[in-house]
Amino acid sequence: MFKKVLVANRGEIAVRIIRALKEMNIHSVAIYSDCDRDSLHRMYADSSYPLHGNKAADTYMNMEKILRIAKESNVDAIHPGYGFLAENEDFAELVEKNGITFIGPKSKTIELMGNKIAARKMMAEAGIPTVPGSVGGVASYDEAKRIADAIGYPLLIKAAAGGGGVGMRVVQKPEDLQEMFERARHQAESVFGDGTVFIEKYIDDARHIEFQIFADKYGNVVHLGDRDCSIQRRHQKIIEESPSSALDEATREKMGEVAVSIARVADYQTAGTVEFIFSKGEFYFLEMNTRLQVEHPVTEMLTGIDIVKTQISLAAGNPLPFTQEEIHFRGHAIECRICAEDPLNGFMPSPSRITDYRTPGGIGVRVDSGVYKNFEITSHYDSMISKLIVWGSTRKEAVARMQRALREYVITGPKTNIPYLCAVMDCGEFQSGTINTKFVEEHPQLFDTAKAICEQLYVPFGEKKSDYIASIEWRLGFAL
Asked: What ranges make up the beta strands (E) of 172-269?
């Protein structure tokens, strides 16, 4: 087993990994930018080193700085977390070449699965169902038009090297194709340095369902069930849950088997996630994420398996500690991403100092956070503050528990998306499981509901409106 591991990340995920390392009696090494000098992950780690600077390119994305610190501190391995360099094949290769273990798949695997065109082609050749569309990259508008005419509208233009919705455009009608095609190529080139795009059929009324998989170097592969990530804003997940209310047991079993097959086709090792588009009883391979997912706690709550500790153990060369038959699922889990952003102003980021911070508690409630009272939310990085995860014996109980936990969660200073998340949980369609990837766009009334939540909380107690407005703002973190 490793003796010392560097965590090449920040915030809640760095804290999450350091906690796992402490339980495994492994020395943890943190790195930190100037604005993260007082960060929880830096203070919690066994040792820490400055990156000097604040921009991502100068700090958590700077491969040379991170590798130099790794060598100076004599670590055995580097855990990249998610985001930043987690799916950067050049970084993984650099780590490997310097005799340090990268806690993730091999650099060649990251490169292969990171290119959506190559991954899509590999899966199609292996008989895995893929969304109808172009086989390879689309180089010109004329080629795009031929493909569009063949598969029909609406369709999606996607960046081959992208992720998180960057370089993705939905085209509803033929007259919009050329403009959207050029926009997607331009954005992909500017963000990823690769303007290659491909086209696929846009699946209507779709659910985004993924399967957590594990594979060791001895040929053993298992899945840890599904997660429904359909509640998204601009292709970014904001709520995840497991199991999906869209799947019957036969379909769930079949998708799990396909996910395992995909891992075998890719010769995959360690933790990963296979993502599918599901609609009208049919499912299609979307992509494979070669890293730890933000929403991994949902699966941990359901299975009792520590995904981070298992990931570290596999990277150290140990075999999988369980078989598929030994993995059991219990109840229902939901995760909400708590972000410093204003839902009543287009979800604009809201960097600010946290003036009060109280997390919810009680049975079945978990908070993965990297902040504390008086911590400064910076504008240099992602706006996510924490992840709130709940478990219930049924989906109904899990939703009710999340409703309660969100209302207990107090974050003041920055504006937060907590009121909007409350509105989603209160929505009848969400409660019935009638959701899809367009849920946010199709329910604009949720913004009005977010403002009304305060009256639901306080009016029954007979308080005067003038008295409780200040309390609402203090409690929910935004001004009315």
From this structure: 197-201, 207-215, 221-233, 236-242
Return the number of other C-beta atoms located less than 10 Å from residue 46's C-beta. 14
State the DSSP H helix or E strand holding residue 181, giving kind and residue range, or none if neither.
helix 177-192
* Cα–Cα distance measured from residue 64 to residue 70, given in angstroms and rounded to the nearest whole number: 10
| CATH number of this structure's domain 132-201 | 3.30.1490.20
Please give the single-letter amino acid code of residue 69. Answer: I
> Do 8 and 31 contact (CB within 8 A), yes or no?
yes
- E strands in 91-206: 101-102, 155-159, 169-171, 197-201
Catalytic residue check, 291: yes
Task: Give the whole-number percent of the chain exceeding pLDDT 70.
Answer: 94
Tens digits of residue pLDDT in 372-429 = 999 999 999 999 999 999 999 999 999 999 999 999 998 888 989 999 999 999 999 9
Using an 8 Å Cβ cutoff, are 474 and 413 in contact?
A: no
For the segment 352-371, the average pLDDT, to the nearest whole number, is 95
- Kindly report, residue by residue over 231-267, the tens digit of the pLDDT: 999 889 999 999 999 999 999 999 999 999 999 999 9
CATH architecture of 4-103: 3-Layer(aba) Sandwich (3.40)
d(CA 378, CA 36): 9
For 195-220, write each residue's pLDDT tens digit. Answer: 889 999 998 889 999 999 999 999 99
Q: pTM of whole model > 0.70?
A: yes
Strand-strand pairing, 341-342 and 77-79? unpaired
Cα dist from 187 to 75, 112, 160, whole Å: 37, 21, 12
> Cα–Cα distance between 240 and 389 in angstroms, integer?
9
3-state class (DSSP) for residue 272? strand
Candidate list 185, 227, 252, 291, residue with the active-site label: 291
List the chain domain ranges.
4-103, 132-201, 207-461
Tokens of 99: 């005799």
Percent of the chain with pLDDT over 90: 80
Pick one of 3.40.190.10, 3.30.470.10, 3.30.505.10, 3.30.470.20 as the CATH number of 207-461: 3.30.470.20
